[in-house]
Amino acid sequence: MTSSGRAVVTLPTDTEILITTEFDAPRHLVYRAWTTPELIKQWWGGDRGTVTSAEVDLRPGGRWRYVMTANGGFEVAFHGEYQEIAPGERIVSTEVFEGMPSAGAVSTATFTEHDGRTTLSILVRHQSKENRDAHVNSGMEGGMQESMNRLEQVARSLA
Predict the structure, then answer these.
(1) Which of 93, 95, 135, 144 is the residue whose CA sits 20 to 30 A from 102?
(2) Which tens digit of pLDDT belongs to each residue from 24-52?
(3) What count of Cα atoms within 13 Å lies in the side-chain half-sphere of residue 64?
């Protein structure tokens, strides 16, 4: 798979997507922007629409849900449940696109810092190759690239 922006997208196995992005911001600020509802609303939708809701109960067993009104006027929503939280370092959660509720995945976000820069690695494990391919072919990369650009802007604004 090729990547068209700052984030590098690879397919390590038939059921996995790995997204790796480096930010010019310290880890604690990237993590804060990743987990704070008011901040998620600023970056999650990229340029594809307006985030209308970002609910976060950041604890194992807690739930999250993000909703966006896309530029075309339709609603896009994702939700999941946090399975593991290592504050500032790692978050493991389920992830369900509400338009395809049977195609849930498990997502592991890992935040590492070196010399004031943060690398965010997101490993998405799908239940099947078909679900992974549907995710990859959904056009997700363009929106994800926009979101990662905005995430960096939000994290840097917190300094």
Answers:
(1) 144
(2) 999 999 999 999 999 999 999 988 999 99
(3) 25
